[in-house]
Amino acid sequence: MPEVPSRITAVEVTLLDLPLLRPHRFAVTTMRTQGVLLIRVVTEDGVAGWGEGVVPGGPWWGGESVEGMAALIDRHLAPAVVGQDVLQPEAVARRLERLAAGAPFARAGVEMAVWDAAGRTLGVPVHQLLGGPHRDRVPVTWAVGSEPAEIVVDEVRRLVAEGRHRSFKLKMGAIPPEADVSRVVAIAEALDGAAPLAVDLNGAWDEYAARRWLPVLDDAGVQLVEQPLPAASVAGLARLRERSGLAIMADESLRTAADALRLVAGHAVDLLAVKIGKSGGLAAVQRIASIADAAGVGCYGGTAIETSLGTAASAHLFCATAAVRCGTELFGPLLLADDIATEPVTYAAGDLLLTTGPGFGITVDGDKVEKYRRR
Ligand SMILES: [Mg+2]
Question: pLDDT tens-digit profile of 188-210?
């Protein structure tokens, strides 16, 4: 370990647009390309660390966008990070939190680059800095967009037959509840138990719709519902949980550790969806996971659809965090038609494998960065 601090000397951002294999439909928007803000942190020892700022298809999720993040980091976050010790990523994260509380995705991207640079400075993988791995691979659920039933059934059948995924999450909320539920029931019946199914409403329903329709999804064999109600409806989630046999997972309702505390104290959830971006970084997710652990609630590792870089960062965090014991949806690199890594992350039999090199173990490919750089 270096005896003197290694100061961060520069933080640089590059905006990229990566193609998707197929459009990905959410309740409110359809993603056709994924904007990626690549963040590079350089230290006085000449070490470079990389981070990734992404949001799922635009500002609808939390108000941040890659364009906004680029300006915020450049003008406000970078000057606060330059001069800091690269071996204190959590201290850097807390400094950023004070500067830009409402911009967790931007903060997470910068913090990610600092963790990567810290690992590279010490020559160890980031999972070691986070307490060491509990597992060396994580199951990956495939998320299917809000497409018509036949398209979804074909996609799921093909992925199961190819041994690529063992569980599936269906996006809902893009069409009225009755038609949406018929669509999902048709999918569940066609698949006939071939793979566990979850649905994600992205907060699209009100409590009445959820009371009316969740039992139908339950009867059709759906096992889990993610964020049926809007983010603020913690008491509503608790009431649904009392009545429903479906496992209830919070995503939009969970951003901060204080949210996690409210959700578990209010008996509102069976599972918490944790993501590096929405909570402002790896250290913040570990605080949330500690609360989940204490409450006996499991965590599920979510994605904002990252390249291999952000996906590897999530894998290091989720493997090093015991409470993330309910699988992941780290499928970002599988939905992207190309990647920015010289060697993308590896999947095997429905699992994502933990990378082992220093930092996050990902080398950014300069040619790819040049190719996809926004002009
Ligand atoms: Mg979600």
Answer: 999 888 889 999 999 999 999 99
pTM: 0.95
Residues with CB under 5 A from ligand 1 (ion): 200, 251
321-334 burial: b if 16+ Cβ within 10 Å, else e = bebbbbbbbbbbbb
Q: Which of 169, 171, 275, 278 is catalytic?
A: 171
Domain boundary assignment for the chain: 8-123+367-372, 128-366
CATH class, domain 8-123+367-372, is alpha beta
CA atoms within 13 A on the CB side of 59: 8
* Tens-place pLDDT, residues 297-322: 999 999 999 999 999 999 999 999 99
Q: Are 191 and 154 in contact (CB under 8 A)?
A: no
370 is catalytic: no
Q: Which of 64, 252, 306, 329 is catalytic?
A: 329
Q: Which CATH superfamily is domain 128-366 in?
A: Enolase-like C-terminal domain (3.20.20.120)
- Give me ligand 1 centre to Cα 353, in Å: 23
Distance CA(56)–CA(48), nearest Å, equals: 26
Q: Which of 64, 47, 67 is nearest to 55 (CA)?
A: 64
Query: What is the Cα–Cα distance from 45 to 25, expressed in whole angstroms?
Result: 44
Amino acid 126: pLDDT: 98
Identify the CA nearest to 147 among candidates 14, 274, 23, 317.
23
Q: What CA–CA distance (Å, rounded) separates 264 from 259? A: 9
| Number of C-beta neighbours around residue 257 at 10 A | 17
CA 143 to ligand 1 centroid distance, Å: 10
CA of 226 to the centre of ligand 1 (A): 6
Task: Report the alpha-carbon distance of residue 246 to residue 264 in Å, rounded.
Answer: 17
Do 8-123+367-372 and 128-366 fold alike per CATH?
no
Cβ distance 105 to 69 under 8 Å? yes
CA of 43 to the centre of ligand 1 (A): 35
Annotated catalytic residue 171: yes
Give the distance (Å) from ligand 1 centre to CA of residue 122.
35
355 Cα to the center of ligand 1, angstroms? 25
